[in-house]
Amino acid sequence: MNEKGVPEDLKGKDKIVFGNIHQIYEWHKNYFLGELEKCIEEPERLAELFIKH
């Protein structure tokens, strides 16, 4: 994260910012994806889903 465009206060903090990326991925894979797929049949649930999570 030492590239141009990265705010100074975030430089060198990539482990803090992305330290739980595996947990985020697992949550999306195991929970959120299923909830999104339900919105195919009930698209009116989509906005509520994003507000809730």
From TrEMBL:
GO terms for biological process, alphabetical: axon guidance
Gene Ontology MF term list: guanyl-nucleotide exchange factor activity
Record-level GO cellular component terms: cytoplasm; extrinsic component of membrane
Keywords from the UniProt entry: Guanine-nucleotide releasing factor
Domain (DH) ranges: 1-53
Name of the protein: DH domain-containing protein
Organism from which the protein derives: Scyliorhinus torazame
